[in-house]
Amino acid sequence: MALEINDLCVNCWACEPLCPNKAIYSAAPHFEIDPDKCTECAGDFADAQCAAICPIEGAIVDELGDALNPPGSLTGIPLQLLAEAAGSAAGTAAKTS
Hints:
Blueprint: E1 4-5, E2 24-25, E3 32-33, H1 49-53, E4 60-61, H2 79-96
Antiparallel strand pairs: 1-4, 2-3
């Protein structure tokens, strides 16, 4: 049972000081979580503190690769709406070129 920080991490340092087990450390190209120390905050907090503070959607995943803060979870904008907005913005850019 351990979480993982992926390539979406922007090295903002928000998660590192919050980890009760000191499992998060700075590495290149992004922070890493020591799987031997990570307990997903079980017994300490209701939610993993790293994911609770992380400002980047999808940067922290569980052992199955599922994001703890998936796209749309921080902004409150449903994924479908984000995709539609991105599609219409791309169409607008193409028309003005």
